[in-house]
Amino acid sequence: MNVSRWNERAEDVGLFFLRVSGGLFLLWVHGLPKLLNYSAQLQVIEDPFHLGANVTLMLAIFSEVLCPLLIIFGVLVRLACLPILCLLWVALLVVHPQWSLDEGQFGWLLLILFTSILIAGPGRLALNVRFAGALRYA
Question: What are the TM regions of this chain, as residue ranges (predicted)?
């Protein structure tokens, strides 16, 4: 295997690891608790745009459950990053503007992670890349 091919493979594995680990982390830490404890979350969720607790919670669940799943499986990855990034910006700048960098470091790290995925794309180890290739030869 030549060096160029090795580098391409390493990039794809790195993007796969970034997608899967970041997606699972967001899903496990934020998404599933909201989904599994929906009623309790309705009582505590912030509603900065006065859309109502139900709508706000559904938007959060969409961003923290469905979008990470799409990213993990490599389907519409760049598009799936956008709601997550919007949610993070709202959380950091609107809901918790008083947070210091230390208090908001988890949010800022997620912002860096999902912005990196948005910029780099899913890599070749993604379902949409696999299906796109299969459709080309069908």
Answer: 12-31, 51-72, 79-99, 105-127
Residue 135 has pLDDT above 50, yes or no: no
Q: Are the beta carbons of 118 and 19 closer than 8 angstroms? A: no
Q: C-alpha 123: how far from its chain's center?
A: 15
Its pTM stands at 0.88
- Count up the domains in the chain and report the number: 1
Handedness of CA 47, 49, 50, 53 (dihedral sign): negative
- Dist. CA 28–CA 25, nearest whole Å: 5
Task: Check if the beta carbon of residue 105 is closer than 8 Å to that of residue 50.
Answer: no
Q: What is the domain extent for residue 21?
A: 3-136
